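Q: I have 246 residues here and want to know how they pack in 3D. Can you give me a structure?
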Amino acid sequence: MTEHRTEHKDKDGKDTDRKDTDRKDRTGNSTAGALLPRVRVRALPPWSLLAAGVLAGGLLGGAYGLVRTPQYTATSYVVAVPGKGSDPASALGFAQAYGRVATQLAVLGDAQVWAGVPVATLERSVRTRTSPDAPMVSVTATAARPDLAADLADAVTRALTRHAAHSADATRVTLRRFARATEPTSPVTAGPAVTGLVGLSAGGLLGGLALLVRPRGRAGEDAGTPSVPAPASAPTSAADTRKAPL
């Protein structure tokens, strides 16, 4: 008579442990490998977001200051002079009117001949300003070169005085050049040092905001899920090992 033995593996044996460690998600990827990037990201200190924002902002701001083309401004002035038989106070009113006309197509169309640039460039580059106390008009031009900025301002004032001369008989007010534009010695745009400081401030602000709104993990998530111990088997006594009588 042959005795057959059958081995039954314990429910908490090695096969069960292997299945738990190699457990996969629905997409077929191992969940153990998916937790590694999260652990590495959470290992970074919180202030690293602020430091990264400051560093990136400073680099971008300094690079912008180096790449950006510097701009120069030059200003010329004209003054309104009353003619014979006219009220001196009327010169102030006509100065205000000519300050508005200086940037119109009627004047800029003549100014482009002496400036050598299109009218669209003059419209973008030239600005005028008047004074409420003096019959004076200032014409300011902005360009990438100092000499070009001075030429643009002088060209507009020259065209404006010619335009006022055509109607001097009716207005009894003439415009005369008060001061020519001089070439600027330094640009009006900020340099790399200033733009770098602005970038540092902006990067620090964005980094601080990212630090405030960053997602926070639940309590106990970083420590991992505690393992459940296997149930202990009840102790067996000598009486239980004896076979019951047939």
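Q: Anything worth noting?
A: The radius of gyration is 42 Å. Residues 1-22, 219-223 have pLDDT under 50 and may be disordered.
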